[in-house]
Design brief:
Helices cover 6% and strands 43% of the residues.
């Protein structure tokens, strides 16, 4: 029998970059064989969008400004979106700014720094540490330099600084981690934050005849996005092992029977876009069960509801310890369905339309210090099954995962000084409601690297391996 993965269509949305996507070196594979029966289809993935639509990271220079005032200075940052709450920059962008000193009397020194810090703080305890990621002086003036000619602080000044793609010395260079904040609950708990800011430091005297010195600091936080793209275009054919020419796309597992001597079910997970894929569009998946026809019969009855393709994705979170989720309608569709509409369908409809497979993307944060090791996880994406088919000895579910805008900016996770953030695709399979549970619940995770941009965005960092 023809393997169900002989068919794979690229269901990802087209690239949103201005650079056109080059043709894939991998030819499109054939359409599904007519040998597959019991096929149910629902509207195409083009109709499945998260709240607010597919997320677009700006590819052009914004024409607005971000302005912040204090009693002594005014800071203006150019090339920002008008009305933005905080400035935003990404990999390799240049921070361009201007200073206006509104009160120059008694000013002894003026300094502008670009700073980035990783902070790890123990909740309810005294343990904490900070790692300096950036500490660059981009402008400095002191009265001692101009004292000979009697000059005062310049009323206006400008500065420019290009954010480095890697940071550190030549032996330990790493990508600059993105802005990030998370709390790890437990004993002890931790708060983790990666923060960046433009800092203006002004030193002044109250009276010229005194030795009193005062310092005024103005801190302007900004969001930093580490932009990445897949190093190779997809879709890719089924491949159980990574080679020099192609990434791994097929992952094989096994469901074990509850009774001794029972026949196991082989589980194959196929990711046409590979483990490195863009969060800009739907991420296709295909899950197949291979085994005895009688054992597969309960799994073959599921039909994806047509309404599911039009439901908006709602963000859900779970704690790694409890595994609880919070998303209305998620237990039935893997989608954020309106609670009133879901409850009105009745228990019989729920039983018949509960999908045996659940696909979710999990983001895990690990903190490893000298005294403790802790991790936490939350869901950042939900899978939608849009097609189901079966034959005598296989059941196949295909669909896509959608990543909401709030999670798309991380750029594939990061690792820095005792903190590691990584993504994975969690595949869970349970016996359908009403069927005799002949197999233990199945749950396996596949490491992922979600990039902020599609392959066609050539100006960003290309990645080909997962963390």
């Amino acid at each position: 029998m023809r393997h169900p993965y002989a068919v794979a269509a690229d269901s990802r949305a087209p690239s949103h970059c201005s650079t056109p996507r080059p043709p894939s070196p991998h030819p499109q594979l054939d359409r599904p064989s007519n040998a597959l029966r019991r096929t149910t289809s629902v509207p195409a993935l083009a109709s499945i969008h998260p709240l607010g639509g597919i997320h677009h990271i700006p590819r052009h220079k914004a024409g607005g400004h971000y302005v912040k005032h204090s009693s002594w200075v005014t800071l203006l940052l150019s090339e920002q979106e008008e009305g933005a709450e905080v400035p935003a920059y990404s990999t390799g962008q240049t921070i361009e700014g201007s200073l206006a000193v509104t009160r120059s009397s008694g000013v002894l020194a003026l300094e502008v720094k670009i700073m980035g810090t990783l902070k790890v703080e123990e909740v309810g305890g005294s343990g904490r540490y900070a790692v300096r990621l950036l500490d660059e002086t981009v402008y400095a003036w002191t009265i001692a330099r101009d004292q000979a000619n009697g000059s005062a602080v310049p009323p206006n000044a400008s500065f420019k600084y290009t954010l480095p793609a890697p940071y550190g010395d030549t032996k330990t260079k790493r990508p600059l981690p993105p802005s990030y904040s998370v709390r790890l609950d437990g004993i002890p708990g931790f708060r983790v934050e990666v923060a960046y800011a433009v800092v203006v430091k002004l030193t002044r005297v109250r009276e010229a005849a005194t030795l009193w010195r005062g310092t005024t600091n103005m801190r302007v936080p900004f969001k930093y996005t580490h932009r990445t793209r897949p190093a190779h275009p997809g879709p890719f054919p089924s491949n159980p092992q990574r080679t020099d020419d192609a990434p791994r796309t097929l992952f094989e597992f096994r469901m074990h029977p509850r009774r001794s001597g029972g026949t196991p079910i082989d589980v194959h997970v196929y990711l046409p876009a590979s483990q490195v894929c863009s969060a800009q569009g739907p991420i296709p998946f295909c899950v197949a069960l291979h085994g005895d026809e009688l054992a597969l019969a309960p799994f073959a009855d599921y039909r994806p509801p047509a309404a599911a393709s039009f439901l908006s994705l709602a963000p859900s979170q779970s704690d790694a310890g409890s595994g609880s989720t919070s998303s209305s309608g998620t237990s039935m569709f893997g989608l954020g369905a309106p609670a009133a509409w879901v409850s009105s369908l009745g228990p019989k409809w729920h039983t018949q339309h509960r999908c045996p497979v659940r696909i979710q993307v999990q983001r895990m944060t690990v903190v490893d210090t000298r005294c403790s090791h802790m991790h936490t996880a939350h869901w950042v994406g939900q899978g939608v099954v849009h097609r189901a088919s079966s034959s005598a000895n296989s059941v196949v579910w295909s669909g896509a995962v959608i990543i909401p805008p709030s999670a798309a900016r991380l750029g594939g996770g990061f690792e820095v000084d005792g903190v590691k953030v990584m993504d994975s695709l969690v595949v869970a399979i349970e016996s359908p409601p009403g069927a005799r549970p002949g197999y233990f619940p199945f749950s396996e995770s596949i490491p992922l690297r979600l990039t902020s941009d599609s392959y066609g965005c050539r100006a960003v960092t290309a990645v080909s391996v997962v963390l």
